[in-house]
Structure formats: structure tokens, C-alpha cells
Design goal:
about 350 residues; alpha+beta; Four Helix Bundle (Hemerythrin (Met), subunit A); Immunoglobulin-like; five-stranded mixed β-sheet; 6 helices; about 45% helix
């Protein structure tokens, strides 16, 4: 082999190696991007759990956590968008939203700790004030009681006769004054009517009322509002799982208190403070095709807030009895359990049946 042939073979080998290297980069880039997106969203979820724990500690100290809930829901909204983008296969956008969500939570623990310490200090000062109030109230009562005993034992004469007649009135007045002074300290002991510890999960239609869409065509957009009112003992971390099925697939059961075994198309995250309500607007449309003989509807995608979710696994047969194709979009409510550090089905769901027309 002469020098020219060796140089030619060397160039060919280098070209093949370079082409192979470029192919590896091209075909592994989406996978790496996907992994980066998944890792970032997981990190956000863990951070949210830590932040939620900080909120509960601040709330236990009677801190005003409304500003913290606003921050958590700002981060949750971005995380929900990241989840939708990830489900739609748009990993770059998912990664961007997840990173933005993470940035919103920067410094959250310090803010929660500051509110908690301020509440502890305020509670300590309040307790001291209440003790002083009760002490003053006790002194007033004892003064009245002492006056009653003195007047009760006082011999009748012209000077004290009039006062002796009003000894009971004086005791009543002094007792009333002592109770008035002590009222701020006694108020926390009063028992107020209690509401049931529960979560309200509701849905409104496009006009924020109970008129819901029932007949749709492919790509027709409509809006739903999902609302959560929290009557539990503390602020709560919820997720809403979005699912879709035909008439034969698994549905949640109110009787058995079980969720559907279908996978969630995407999760929506939301935090709700105690005795508060939060709402989520959803813009939804369906992409599907119907066979030429009008016997089978094939789902392609469900678009939610601009993100296209894969629903290719679902086909819907023509319903002879109802004369149409019927699909069921439903939303399951899951609640974060601080004891197990995981979500559990909260035994609440919302369901909407749709007649899907050609």
C-alpha cells in the first residue's frame, strides 16, 4: 500500500466516524431533552412539597399565609403548563416552564420562616397581654367582692345605710366590669358553629354557570372552570388528573370510593388555603376522525390550554341506543398526604359526557 492509498483510506475512515458521531448526537438529543424535562419537573414537585411543609408550619403558628399561597399557585400554574407540554411531547417548552416554576420558588423557605417567626413573636406578645388583662379583671372582681363583704358586715347607720342597700348592685356592677375587661381573653374560649371538614369540587361551563357543552364537533373549542373550596383544617395541596374514556372503559366509582385505572393525560396542580376557593380555567378541544361507514370514531388528541395531549389509544363505537358517538372527559381530585408524602385519591371527581358529531 503506497502513501496515497493510505491517506485515502484514512480520510474515508475519519468521514465515517464523523458521520456516526453526528448521528449519535442527532438521535440522542431528543432523549436527553426529554430526560432533562422530566428531571426538572420532578425537582419542582419535590420543591413544592418542601414549600408546602413550610406553609403548614407557618400556618400552625397562626401566620397569615395568603402571600405564600399566591406564590405556590404561581409556581403550580407554571408546573401544570410544564406537565401539559411534557404530555404533548414538547420537552423544550416543558423544561422552560419547569425552570420558571423553580425560579418562582427561590427564597420561599426564608419568606415562610420569617412569617412563622413573626407570628410566634406576635402570639407571645398576645399571650402576655391576655394574662395581664385577666389579672386586671381578677383585681376588679376581687375589689367588688371585698366591697360586698365590707358592706355586708357594716353596721347600719346614717352614713352607710344607703350604700348597704346597694351592696348587691355594687357586686353585680363590679362583676360585669371584670367580665368586660376579660372579654378579649375569653373570646378564644367561645365555641362557634363549626362547618364540616370537607372539600368542594365543582365545575362551571363557558358562561360560569351550570350550562355545559354536550354536542361538539372536531376542533371545537370550549371552556370549563374547575373550582375547589377547602373546608379542611389547613391549607391543602391538590392535583387534578385529567382523563378521557369511552363507554366501556374504567370510570371512577362513587359507591366504591375508587378512581379510574386509566392513566392521567396530564396533572393540574393547585394549592388552596383554609376556607378559601381557587378556580382553574381550561380551554378544551377534541381532534378525531370518523370512519366512512360512520361506525367508529378514532381519537387523536385532546387539546387543553393550547397543549395537544395524545389520546390515540381510545376508539369509540357508534351507540345504537343513543344514536351517536359519546366520549367522557372527567377530572379526579387527589390530595397530598403529609404522613406518606404522596398523593391519594380524594374520592371526588367531575364528569362531562359529550356527543361527538362528524
Amino acid at each position: 500500500m503506497n502513501g496515497g492509498e493510505f491517506l485515502y483510506i484514512t480520510k474515508k475512515c475519519l468521514s465515517l466516524l464523523l458521520a456516526l458521531f453526528l448521528c449519535i448526537i442527532i438521535f440522542t438529543a431528543p432523549t436527553a431533552q426529554c430526560q432533562d424535562s422530566s428531571g426538572t419537573t420532578t425537582a419542582v414537585k419535590r420543591n413544592l412539597e418542601t414549600c408546602y411543609d413550610a406553609v403548614l408550619h407557618a400556618e400552625t403558628a397562626s401566620a397569615n399565609i395568603s402571600s405564600l399561597i399566591v406564590i405556590l399557585n404561581d409556581a403550580s400554574e407554571l408546573l401544570s403548563k410544564a406537565e401539559l407540554a411534557n404530555a404533548a411531547g414538547d420537552y423544550a417548552v416543558a423544561n422552560s416552564y419547569a425552570s420558571q416554576s423553580q425560579n418562582v420558588l427561590n427564597g420561599f423557605a426564608e419568606k415562610a420562616s420569617t412569617l412563622q417567626q413573626a407570628a410566634i413573636t406576635e402570639n407571645s406578645q398576645h399571650s402576655t397581654s391576655m394574662i395581664l388583662t385577666l389579672f386586671v379583671s381578677l383585681i376588679v372582681f376581687l375589689c367588688g367582692l371585698s366591697a360586698w363583704f365590707i358592706l355586708n358586715r357594716q353596721k347600719m347607720n346614717l352614713t352607710h345605710g344607703a350604700l348597704h342597700q346597694y351592696k348587691t348592685s355594687i357586686l353585680i356592677v363590679m362583676t360585669a366590669v371584670s367580665l368586660l375587661v376579660a372579654s378579649p381573653a375569653l373570646q378564644p374560649l367561645l365555641v362557634y358553629p363549626q362547618t364540616d371538614n370537607l372539600t368542594e369540587f365543582y365545575m362551571f361551563g363557558p358562561n360560569c354557570d351550570t350550562e355545559y357543552p354536550s354536542n361538539i364537533i372536531a376542533n371545537q373549542n370550549f371552556r370549563l372552570y374547575l373550582g375547589i373550596t377547602n373546608y379542611l383544617d389547613s391549607s391543602v395541596y391538590y392535583i387534578i388528573q385529567l382523563k378521557f374514556r369511552d363507554q366501556t372503559q374504567s370510570a371512577p366509582s362513587s359507591f366504591n370510593h375508587t378512581s379510574s385505572n386509566l392513566p392521567s393525560l396530564s396533572d393540574l396542580t393547585i394549592f388552596v388555603a383554609k376556607d378559601s376557593t381557587e378556580e382553574l380555567p381550561l380551554d378544551i378541544s377534541f381532534q378525531y376522525t370518523i370512519s366512512e361507514d360512520l361506525t367508529l370514531l378514532s381519537m387523536h388528541n385532546i387539546t387543553v390550554n393550547g397543549f395537544s395531549l395524545d389520546a390515540n389509544d381510545t376508539t369509540i363505537a357508534w351507540d345504537e341506543e343513543k344514536t351517536g358517538f359519546y366520549g367522557n372527559i372527567f377530572f379526579e381530585l387527589w390530595i397530598y398526604n403529609t404522613s406518606t408524602n404522596s398523593f391519594q385519591y380524594h374520592e371526588r371527581y367531575l364528569s362531562l359526557w359529550l356527543k361527538m358529531n362528524p
